[in-house]
Amino acid sequence: MVTVSPPIAPSTAPAPVTVDVGPLRFEDVVAVARHGAPVVLSDAALAALDRARAVIDALAAGETPAYGVSTGFGALATRHIPAAMRAQLQRSLVRSHAAGSGPPVEREVVRALMLLRLSTLATGHTGVRRGTAEAYAALLTHGITPVVPEHGSLGCSGDLAPLSACALALMGEGEVDDADGVRRPAHEALAAAGLTPVELAAKEGLALINGTDGMLGMLVMAVTDLRMLLRTADVAAAMSVEAQLATDRVFAADLQALRPHPGQADAAANLRALLADSPVVASHRGPDCNRVQDAYSLRCSPQVHGAARDTVAHAATVAGRELASAVDNPVVVDDRVESNGNFHGAPVGYVLDFLAIAAADVASISERRTDRFLDRARSHDLPPFLAADPGVDSGHMIAQYTQAGIVSELKRLAVPASVDSIPSSAMQEDHVSMGWAAARKLRRSVDGLAQVLAIEVLTAARALDLRAPLEPAPGTGAVVRLLRDAGVEGPGPDRHLAPEIATAVGLVRSGAVLAAVQSQIGDLA
């Protein structure tokens, strides 16, 4: 699966990200996950680690059984483990829980997962030693990425199998991809980087694997991508409204204010800005224009795009709370260690599913706008399928098929994963979130949305060219020029269309389409 790229890649080596006792920012996660930023632990984080470790050491030396320190795990928590076997207990935990299957997940997912686990360690509520946390940070800084199979997390008791694969690499076991992307045994990559495998002490194995970090990392990146893609959706909609000779009067601020959803207001403001000073729109605006009842896919774009924006805003709020959380079990609180249920992934799983619904619907309305270009009865005198010689040429007929196929898949992916639960661990873990599964399917949804929007942009640009000699608006015209400069030709006889679609997809994913618009009319909301 190809995933959406960040809007703008840094031109220089990224600055180190400091992991402190407080929450990470979205941009910190993206910098480490996607741009390979190195990681350092703050002095405050190191002090918090030392304080929590002192509590664990005291507990380990005592006679009272403590979950994760001197007992087994899950349904085996009633087994008391003698002191001589506790290092083996932690090794065995990691080895047995690194039980994933399937293809490896993407490098950026693993790096995000590791950074967020490190962030929880740095809060001083997990009880790991400072050296263990520093060794974990060193993996990120040296670009050593554990191989994490896609399947294995139920999203409760954390993303156990994915996080265990990372902890295994810290121990010098399993496979990793080094900074050059070469797959090799973990102990070899560690040695090449001058790092020493970690011998886990009491509680550390559990602390390294008991978090919702994988699903949260994917949520943070999805929110980042969708913020860019929803502004791009406004660009695509404006190009379609313009090229289909639709009215812009329905986007007026006073009309939108009658239904005061903030996302809707932002989307409508973007459409007004994009369509301002458009000779195409001006050509049919005036007292003789009766275009006040355009199709829903044109007229209701702010309502749909706005609802998606508000959904993303809610998801970002949840993600922000999670970034400020310490997810582990048990946790160190002051001078005691307590069991809890904060590892349950429901808060994250719900919004991951919610975002998949929003992505599917924005893609659906985009496909409907595209389809109107291709039907002469609805396109206002554009040639059928925008073909040069309809009948001999098919134009963009099959590009819409591609859109339709993707949208159909996105509708299937919008079925929530978080409503499912399969009991595990001999019924000790009898209700799980499936948040990891929700995150994995959301990544496919975000990718599909980018592809659907790219085909709309490609088709609308062709239609705008066909409206010549009328010129498009400054912002939409910049997108047409961007495509032409990238090698996508204008209207003409049929040619191999897949490479042109791929180019358009790349321009949408990279944020180039949005950047081209904003260079002309300023930032969109």
From TrEMBL:
Pathway involvement of the protein, from the record = Amino-acid degradation; L-histidine degradation into L-glutamate; N-formimidoyl-L-glutamate from L-histidine: step 1/3
Question: What superkingdom heads the lineage?
Answer: Bacteria
- Keyword Cytoplasm on this protein? no
Listed EC numbers: 4.3.1.3
Its keywords, alphabetically, are: Histidine metabolism, Lyase
Q: Where in the cell is it found?
A: Cytoplasm
| PROSITE patterns membership | PAL_HISTIDASE
Which InterPro entries does the record match to this protein? Answer: Aromatic_Lyase, Fumarase/histidase_N, HutH, L-Aspartase-like, Phe/His_NH3-lyase_AS
The answer on whether this UniProt entry bears the keyword Lyase reads yes
According to its UniProt record, which reaction does this protein catalyse? L-histidine = trans-urocanate + NH4(+)
> According to its UniProt record, where is this protein mainly located?
cytoplasm
Which enzyme class, named as a word? lyase
Please report which protein family the annotation says this sequence is part of: Belongs to the PAL/histidase family.
Per its record, how is this protein called by name? Histidine ammonia-lyase
Species in which this protein is naturally found = Nocardioides marinquilinus
